[in-house]
Write a structure and sequence with these properties.
SH3 type barrels; alpha+beta; single chain; 58% helix
């Protein structure tokens, strides 16, 4: 790649600019005009801010038949200080013209200010504030160069400065055009992708995983197409990028291996639908609901609002418990024990009846209490019951069940034992010194 800079063109452009500075700036008349510009701006701010506040409140509280009219009026109100400054400057300019005084700087400032007002009002119809500002600055910059008279030398400088990639020559002007085209097309791709996602959400035959996979594949495809279009627009032959594509392949093989692995794993998860947004999963100690499935990670939110960002590769290579893979009904187990003086048949009946009033426990399948063994200090039981909303938490329903068991056993004088040990101290044999 060879970078080329036209030194003669740069020197010519700098000479024009230097001559313009000597003629139009370095004089007392220019200093006086600059002082008048600052005074006009300050006067416009002092008078315009209270007016902007009162008029802006009036427009905000009024209803308009069209949103575009309200947006246009809102932007116009924001420009009231600048508009007043333009009026003061225009009046001063008329006075100077009567005395035939050079007013180049004042005319330049007036034209630039009016161009800024026109550009701001024209871009106020764009709903995206970032893009409206960006377009406004670009258009005003081009208008400013044209007003100053430097547009042709500036464009000639951009055309003469460039670099070569293989046999393709790129200039700063072509690169700037490519960047603008790329930004516009990427913004269009974002709008189109969101529109497609909304339309897919309205298709009843598609589940959430399929819709998410289709939207992501379409977005990636459109981004690739935009990249190809931009490269062709500047005249870059894709075959000349073979070296760079090989270098990128090596970089993917080494430095970006995990990134690509997580991306491919994400597509696999979306295609086989093993994990879907809304599922309740458990990976090691992290248990929660899947909120977002991204290109690199899956966001899992627990009941205490901790958000785990789990790489997609871990969900492919490690064991994952999906509590809601085929259905959301899961069985929970609560072990407990009672004293050996208790009747096991009575305990089973009481415990089963005590949990039937808990709202989250399903009536079908019915709860079951089983005798699981005879422990050192207690008769061991296990209560098994089913719920269908694990996303609402598991520990809370287990706590309700334990409280119900405690209350029932206490009301029926059934003891819940605790480990007990009997210690026997053996009297030691007397030592020879202790014998009488």
């Amino acid at each position: 790649m060879e970078f080329q800079l036209n030194i003669e063109m740069v020197q010519q452009w700098l000479g024009i600019f230097q001559q313009w500075v000597y003629i139009h700036i370095l004089s007392w008349v220019i200093v006086a005009q600059i002082v008048i510009l600052i005074a006009s701006r300050l006067l416009g701010e002092i008078i315009g801010r209270p007016a902007r506040k009162s008029i802006g409140g009036y427009i905000t509280n009024r209803s308009f038949p069209y949103v575009l009219i309200k947006s246009l009026l809102t932007h116009l109100v924001r420009l009231i200080p600048l508009l007043l400054s333009i009026i003061f400057l225009w009046a001063t300019l008329l006075i100077f013209q009567r005395f035939e005084i050079s007013i180049f700087i004042m005319k330049l400032a007036l034209n630039l200010s009016m161009a800024w007002v026109i550009v701001q009002l024209a871009t106020s119809t764009i709903p995206d504030r970032y893009w409206s500002r960006l377009i406004g600055v670009l258009v005003w910059s081009l208008a400013a160069l044209n007003i100053i008279g430097l547009s042709d030398p500036f464009i000639a400088l951009l055309r003469s400065t460039g670099f070569s990639i293989g046999q393709t020559r790129l200039t700063l002007l072509s690169v700037l055009q490519a960047v603008i085209i790329l930004l516009v097309l990427l913004k269009g791709v974002g709008w189109l992708s969101r529109y497609i996602e909304v339309r897919l959400n309205g298709v009843p035959g598609l589940n959430s995983s399929t819709r998410l996979m289709l939207s992501k594949v379409m977005y990636i495809t459109m981004v690739i197409m935009v990249t190809i279009i931009v490269l062709n627009s500047v005249g870059i032959d894709l075959t000349s990028l073979a070296f760079f594509s090989g270098a990128i392949g090596v970089g993917v093989g080494f430095g970006l291996q995990k990134v690509v692995s997580n991306f491919i794993s994400g597509l696999i998860l979306l295609s086989d639908r093993s994990i879907k947004p809304g599922d309740v999963i458990q990976l090691d100690e992290a248990v929660g609901r899947v909120r977002i499935m991204g290109g690199r990670y899956v966001s899992v939110v627990t009941r205490d609002e901790k958000e785990y960002l789990i790489p997609n590769e871990d969900l492919i290579t490690q064991q994952v418990i999906n509590w809601s893979y085929s259905n959301r009904i899961i069985r929970l187990k609560v072990p407990f024990g009672v004293s050996y003086r208790s009747d096991p048949h009575q305990v089973i009946k009481l415990v089963v009846s005590s949990v039937t009033d808990i709202a989250r426990i399903l009536k079908d399948p019915v709860p079951v209490c089983l005798l699981t063994g005879f422990g050192d200090s207690s008769i061991d039981f296990e209560l098994r019951f089913w719920i269908k909303d694990p996303q609402n938490g598991v520990s809370n329903v287990i706590g309700d069940v334990l409280l119900a068991i405690w209350d029932t056993l206490k009301q029926n004088n059934i003891e819940i034992p605790f480990p007990q040990r009997d210690l026997h101290f053996k009297t030691p044999f007397p030592t020879p010194e202790e014998e009488p």
